[in-house]
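Hey all, sorry for the wall of text incoming. These are the two entities for the joint prediction.
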Amino acid sequence: MARPTSRLLPARAAAAVSAPPRAKTSAAGRGSTRRERYGGHLGAAALMAPTLLALLAVSLYPVLRSLWMSARDTTLAQQTDSFTGLKNYRELAGDAQFWNAWKQTLGFTAASTLLETLIGLVMALVLFETFRGRGWVRAAMLIPWAIPTVVTSRMFGWLFDGQNGLINYVLVKLHLVEHNVNFLGSTSLAMPTIVLADVWKTAPFMALLILAGLQTIPHSLSEAARIDGASAWQVFWHVRLPLLMPSLLVAAMLRALDAFRVFDLPYTLTGGGPADSTETLSTLAYKHLFSGLEIGYGSTIATAMFVTESLVAVGFAVFIFRRLKAVEG
Amino acid sequence: MEPTPTLAHKTIHRRGFLKFGGIALGAAAFAPALSACGGSASGGSSGKTELTFASAKFYGKSNIGQIVEQFNNSQSKIHVTYRELPPPSSSTEVHQQLVQTVGRGDGSVDVFTQDIIWISEFAGAGWTLPLDDYIDASERAQYFPGVIQACTWQGKLTALPWFVDAGMLYYRKDLLDNAGLKVPTTWDQLVSASRTLQSAGKTKFGFLWQGKQAEVLLCDLVEFVGSAGGGILGPDGKTVKIADPQAVQAVQFMYDTMNKHGITPKDVLSWDEEPSRRPFTAGQAAFMRNWAYAYAIAQDPKQSQVVDKVAVAPLPAFPGGKSSACLGGYQYGVSASSKNKSAAVEFVKWMSSPATQLKFATDVGLAPSRAAVFDDPALAKANPFMGKLKNVFTGGTPRPVTPKYPQVTLELQSSVSKALTSGDIQGSLQAAKSNIEQRLS
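and here's what came out:
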């Protein structure tokens, strides 16, 4: 996708976009003496120290702490609290409920991220065009995202109710289905329904992130392409999309990491059921940690979540890095 | 305040100065407040024994705080401070707070109330004081036997009953009367009554219950299995009976209501109390299993199409079994680490006395755990419906009594939900049995 861009993009325009910041940094680097730089580093380190400490306290400490707890059999109710090494992990490896939740969480993450990015992209492209009332529409779009998820869940519970829900009413009236669809009470439909609810809620947010990315693309580029006779589709496919790719991928990564932790929708809509078909890692960890007060084993699940999520993040980062290189090169 | 100006003069710019000044002012404003707090806390000593009572929040015409105040005014030796916990709808939070305060064992809470399903967990951990020395057998006999069973852990009474709730059969009087049907006492009768009414077009659904993978599924399970003469765990709390023939028969029946008899929509697999209550009060169903709360809604013209057409009865049973009603409700516990145990026991006895239970029934709407209180004319006057529940509560059955209840319920929710969606009853229950045995060992 990037190759054609460099062919189509006027070389000078591309250089003009990337050159000024690069020139600036190198000038600053060359201008300072070694001593100034050393002093600068020390001062910078001193200034950064509080932030670093705060970061360590709120992000590193809990991770290490839960790692430590994951190797213990701590259960508040039974008053057990001793080091058990890898026992919890061995149990986890053979825990069918965990692996079921693990697969479903990854499936949910992939499906919701893909749909939200695509729909968000379409929405962003529409909102990028000038039309009357655009400001209002942009603001209104954030409403679904701003509603607390627990409220959204209740709303979706009513909408998708298998007997008296609005969605079923409309589908039957339009003769799209013959009988009411049991959206939340069937093992095959409950998860897709939750994905749908998540897409409704978060696609507008993705649209805004992508819109922000779109606005950083200079108008002159698409103008130049149009003058060269490119169609609207070509402008999008060869000019905007490649330049948008970095922000698109970053937005998708943020969304994927967030979707991976999905909790409130399944917890309030289905409680993880029917037959564990909507159990996610967060709901499973919550059940062990807070209903069962099994701090040890719950932490093991949380640690497994952390590892999986890190892998997802690294995967995205590598992919983004490659794309960026490809775009530049 | 004094060093600030000089500091500002030397190095700090205007914004920095404002910030420093702000902090100093803030600290100055806080100081009197802090000392005021200290003053009032140390001031309350008047020779009375101080107790702390922690309970989930319930309210109606009166609230718990007001009833505790009545105790404080009724005598001169003990003063109880009420610590309000979240409402029972956030029971996970209530549980967590109790574990953190009572479980600490420092005597900071003397008396507390606990959901009926936590009693064995707390007793197993040694947090609750056995009350056998204070409550004799004749006194125990005044409560519903199922509640006493739920309050007993390894032969010791570790909780004192407060109020009860239980599952019951709601039915449409008008439909049954018009069709000349009797209130069903067996599940077969319920199926045939439902099918008669459904095929005559009188009702859309026959029987609604709750199959959501949640705690409520376990309550429904206890009732179905109990009415077949089976159970989930044996009386020792270790033998797993969930794959016994009676349990399999009961779960098979739950599955059949949806798939064979067609009296229950499959949607119940995602329904807990409220989603199942709405179609019933909208006049779409002939029968429903639910808790006591649904009655008031069914009689409210704003929310119900079936005002004055609804009545309750004990749930039906299988031939040879007897009706069972899953017990709910909160019960009192005395903290084993309390420094004033005899005062604490005196307080819970007062709270659990017939007079106080009557007060909770008429003013807060909590059903008494003493059978005799139901016969009090004052209750019949204030809450006629509650007076009729005595026979429902008499058949009250506790949920499995084990300190590992949280693990057992999660396992059962998952496997019974699997049995109900897949139809592989025997296989799912057998798997549940071996998983639970592993967890209990």
